[in-house]
Amino acid sequence: MTANRIKGGLIDRTRSLRFQFDGTVYEGHPGDTLASALLANGVRLMGRSFKYHRPRGPISAGSEEPNALVELRAGARREPNTRATVVELFDGLTADSQNRWPSLRFDALAVNDRLSNFFAAGFYYKTFMWPAAFWEKLYEPIIRRAAGLGSLSRQDDPDSYDKGFVHCDLLVIGAGPAGLMAALTAGRGGARVILADEDFRMGGRLNAESFGIGGRSGAEWADKAVAELRSLPNVRLMPRCTVLGAMDHGIYAAVERVSDHLPEPLPGKPRQVLWRIYSRRAILAGGATERPIAFENNDRPGIMLAGALRAYANRWGVAVGRSAAVFTNNDDGLRTAADLEARGIPCRVIDSRKGEEVIDTSGRLGLTSITIRGPKGIQTIRCDALGVSGGWNPNVNITSHHRSRPVWNEAIAAFVPGRDGPQGLAAAGAAAGRLSTHGALESGAARAEEALVDLGFTAPKRSLPEAEDAPIAITPKWYVHGGTGRAWIDPQNDVTVKDVKLAHQENYVSVEHLKRYTTLGMATDQGKTGNVLGLAIMAELTGKPIPETGTTIYRPPYTPVAMGALGGRARGQEFKPRRLTPSHKWASEQGAVFVEVGYWLRSQWLPKPGETHWRESVDREVLTTRRSVGICDVTTLGKIDIQGTDAGAFLDKVYANTFSTLAVGKCRYGLMLREDGIVYDDGTTARLGPNEYVMTTTTANAVLVFRNLEFARQCLYPDMDVQLISTTEAWAQYSIAGPNARNLLQKIVDQDISDAALPYMGCKDVTVCGGLRARIFRISFSGELAYEIAVPTRYGDALIRELVAQGAEFDAVVYGTEALGVMRVEKGHVAGNELNGQSTALNMGLGKMVSRKKDSIGMVLAQRDGLTDPGGYRLVGVRPVDPARGLTAGSHFLEPGAAAVAANDLGWLTSVVHSPHLGHSIALGYLKGGEARQGQRLRAANLLAGTEVEVEIVSPHFFDPEGARLHG
Amino acid sequence: MAEHRLKPLTALGHDHPERVTIGPVTMTEVADVALASVTARMGRLPDVQGAAAAAGIPLPAPGHWQGGSPYGAFWLATESWMVEAPFASHEDIRALLLQVFGDAASITEQTDAWARFDVAGHHLHDLFERLCAVDLRAGQPGLATRTVIDHLGCYLILRDESLVSVIGPRSSAAVLFHALETAAHSVF
Q: Hey, which residues 78-117 in chain B have their CB within 8 Å of chain A?
């Protein structure tokens, strides 16, 4: 048996587990936590404090632990700041202490403790104010090195996580007596119940107490209750599952630690699951957290909360020390003394209600003695374990998540949940301030009965087991007066009574200021043990009652959460979906380089063997297309099917130009404006029938346009007979462009597509390759004779292969988005760079497209003075005076000789490409008064790139300005 | 099926539908169903209902799917349904439905807009609670709803207690199938 293991407890002594702490091998048992196993082995020193590097051991036996933080596991799985008090022991566990150098027992940075007078609250704020520039480069790095918690592995997390969604009538948070009774009541009543508890063993405090329930031990009663719940098909038990927060509409977030009790997750299994719990009602039965009393040197390893001291004895069979003492201001503390005595551990009681108090302690790395002041004078006694009980704080945290403020309860000297907590959430048991076991059982049953009735169930006949119902009998005592040393109230942040006094002295008396000035309640424990204590001391200093001094409310999460759990199942690329085009498989085989556009992966260019630079590929694709024929996958453009007897009238509303007059079998280019008159999308819409149109949008705006159309249909024009549905993915669509486009397509299309049969801007239903239904549109983005052909998506792969095969005789090329961009700039077509969210149709040289003969979205506001200024920005073409000079996108126009300052800015280059046809760089840009400046020479300066090029302003139509090729 | 020389690929990019068994569930890509949306034009619902009844096309209530032969359907939106039929006999489903509904409805071919994966087996709710917010444990056969799986808008249809269809965007079929597989490994 290990040094401090005593009889009893809820551990499996038939099996031993070996584990390491700071390189030393120890043994524990299933059912142990890392903290209980270390204490059983006589290890009380588990960490160093944040600021002063004081030796520290656990003060609790649960998730509120501020001190015993370790780095758990090794390598990529190393997890810093893990609370040893909640780490379930497993065979092979490794843990290391943190924030110490070179070792836990001898920590060189403990020198900070000697310099503590310099490190009082506000020290950093006062000391490192000047010079300001030193903070980031000098002060902060030094402070971070000296103070801190654990360190990250800096490796990728090798584990996977998952997420999930569960539904219930009643969520019960916490499986102590109140939670178990609530779940039993609701489960027996037929409601769908989820019972979640952060512990790996359900029962809550019942597992840590010696008193009985209904003639059994608390733990036995809990086991029986759990067994009954497990037998109910409408009840779901979720141990190892911490409810982190109350979200909106009865939704709660919870993390289930699926694999943390294993050396590593089983193959394919997640480490943790982030659950979204949809509940109709919820009961918070999260218990209460004991709080300490502050006195000098109350932070030595071996000093802990009295409830924790007896939990280690009762649940884990661990004597933290062989001679103990309890310092209490209430009757619950006396239970610890009684339980320890019953287990053969002598325990001295120091009861503040009788005028006794602990005024100091000693022991460098662990408690060896305490000094007591009482009616009989001052006395020092030897002991190596001290339990402290200053009362119990109900765990109100989750009730505060919608900003409800807890209210002060004098009877238990603690805050209890306010009445305006999250809708549908009620508190029961200790969380509601009912600190006796009977109170917990009764309130758990009562809250569940209320929920059942609320939800239309019939509550079962109440059957409460007998249980103790003793009052806590507290006489508040917050700290021991008169000392000159440091008395700790928040050990995680090294906040002392003196710090609170200093905050008061410097007028940081608001509870929010107190927190930020002293760091009280920050970091991993979020003040679970220290907040109320700090607040009470401030109240005493200000002479105000505690409720008037203020209350701290809590935010989610209740306990720290691994970032991986928040990420869920997705890793790397999986954080956003990928959309693959119908030609993706073929393009991948060709070695295409892909670019992401609106989640789509589009071919950017398709290199041929021997091409070493992207420009070679793009130039070839452009030149071949203009010389013969090119093929491009344009499936990604949004396609929206618009039908109904008012479809044309509807399009007149959402487009700036008119569509109701478009003939059946024709296409038209359209501009779509925001309400404020700015252009936000463009595209071609075809009229397939009298009441049937198909609209194309830009790739990136497809979803936005559809959403806006739905809004317009449902909210702006509900009387119109119009129906919408996206067909983007239903059709594989390819652009065929170039002088040989018709020749190539005619080999595939079964019907006549001559200029007479399908003139420019015509569209029609056809069949291809011997009978497959298809749609063909004669539209062009490249300025060439061009078509778009669409077939059902499943045939898209076959069609690109067919086009390439049939195009071989024309030397057809498949081109990507880069070549597409080059050709559209050569033709002066606007795209995303010009549709920049601040430009009007007038700016783009398309002002005449905004019809004033009809009402359309954005039409009125597009006429505002500021948007119709004749000297405003206009789309221009730009070319370098010296063709050898390359242009840089984002360069700004300046007059010759003008200083490169904002006041002289005339506009900017929006899109720059190398035109293989012209043999030099060309650009589009927005230039103030651009129309009148054609032929002028300006400078294009880019201060970021350090470039400046003399440019000539020209027409944006660089290539075939008459459009002869288009109609070819 | 039309006679032509183009060979189709499934949504996952294969010649034949993918089929994977993980634990108690089998996931199968379904490519042999044609789809079309049918939405009543304003004021024409009675006409649509009459035509549907005559043609044996079910028009289930909101949140529901109803099977049938050759036509099944699930509810999409107000006065709007997605109609299913065997692909082999109904590849050009829009043309066939136009004969049924005439100008009383707006009909749009949707067959290749979607990828469908049928998930068959026991404990399907254990799998789907990892994937979406649909309360499948409380769901009855015939449940049809829109949901989101790994950022993808999908339809979920509980065809019977041991068969769920997931119908998601075709271009992201691989992403959706990966999500199903990963979740299944995680659960089973």
A: 80, 92, 103, 106-114
Using the Cβ of A598 and the Cβ atoms of chain B, whether some distance falls under 8 Å is answered with no
Domain B33-111 fold: Alpha-Beta Plaits (3.30.70)
Given phi > 0 = left and psi -120 to 50 = alpha, else beta, which region is A916? Answer: alpha
CB contact under 8 A, A770 and B4: yes
Give the sheet arrangement for strand B80-86, strand by strand.
B65-66, B72-77, B80-86, B33-40, B105-109
Distance CA A803, CA A805 (A): 5
> Residue ranges of the domains in chain B?
19-31+113-187, 33-111
Question: Residue A162, SS3?
Answer: strand
Nearest CA in chain A to B4: A770
What is the DSSP annotation of A175-209?
Answer: -SHHHHHHHHHHHHTT--EEEE-SSSSTTGGGGG-
A contact test, residue of B92, B171, B188 with most A CBs within 10 A: B171
Quote the mean pLDDT of chain A: 95
Interface test with A, best of B186, B187, B188 (most A CBs within 10 A): B186
Structure tokens at A234: 């409408």
Residues of A in contact with B173 (CB under 8 A): 580
* Secondary structure of residue A942 in the 3-state scheme: strand
> Which fold does the domain B19-31+113-187 belong to in CATH?
Gyrase A; domain 2 (3.30.1360)
* CB crowding A501-520: b at 16 or more within 10 Å, else e: bbbbeeebbebeebbbbbbb
The confidence band for A532, taking pLDDT boundaries of 50, 70 and 90, is very high
Which helix (DSSP H) or strand (DSSP E) does residue A234 occupy? none
Residue A126 has a CB neighbour count (10 Å cut-off) of 10
Residue type, A935: G
* Tokens 């096309």 belong to residue: B57
A730 part of contact set with chain B, CB < 8 Å: yes
Helix, strand, or coil (residue A954): strand
**Per-residue pLDDT reduced to its tens digit, A165-201:** 999 999 999 999 999 999 999 999 999 999 999 999 9
| A936, two tokens | 């002028």
**Cβ contact (<8 Å) for B133 and A278?**
yes
Residue A870 burial (CB count, 10 A)? 9
A876: left (phi over 0), alpha (psi -120 to 50) or beta: beta
Question: Cα(first)–Cα(last) distance of chain B, in Å?
Answer: 40
DSSP A760: T
The sign one gets for the Cα dihedral A511, A513, A519, A525 is: positive
Backbone phi, then psi, for A678, in 5-degree steps? Answer: -85, 140
Separation CA A691–CA B106 (nearest Å): 9
Within A343-476, where are the H helices? Answer: 437-454
Residue that wins the pLDDT comparison between A91 and A50:
A91
Asked if A349 and A326 touch (Cβ cutoff 8 Å), the reply is yes
**CA–CA dist B68, A394 (Å, integer):** 58
* Selection from A882, A856, A862 nearest residue A952 by Cα: A882
Closest CA to A800 of A497, A582, A532: A582
- Inspect the interface and report whether the beta carbons of B5 and A160 lie closer than 8 Å: no
Kindly report the backbone phi and psi dihedral angles of residue A481, in degrees, each rounded to the nearest multiple of 5, phi listed first.
Answer: -80, 160
> Does this complex have an ipTM over 0.95?
yes
Q: Set out the domains of chain A in order of their start, with CATH numbers.
A: 17-124 (3.10.20.440), 161-288+394-454 (3.50.50.60), 292-390 (3.50.50.60), 869-967 (2.40.30.110)
Of A164, A578, A798, the CB nearest to B6: A798
* Pairwise pLDDT comparison (A567 vs A346), residue with the higher score: A346
Distance from CA of B33 to the nearest CA of A (A): 12
Question: How would you class A610 by CB atoms within 10 Å of its CB: exposed for 0-12, middle for 13-18, buried for 19 or more?
Answer: exposed
Question: Which residue in the block uniquely carries the two structure tokens 């919608």?
Answer: A402
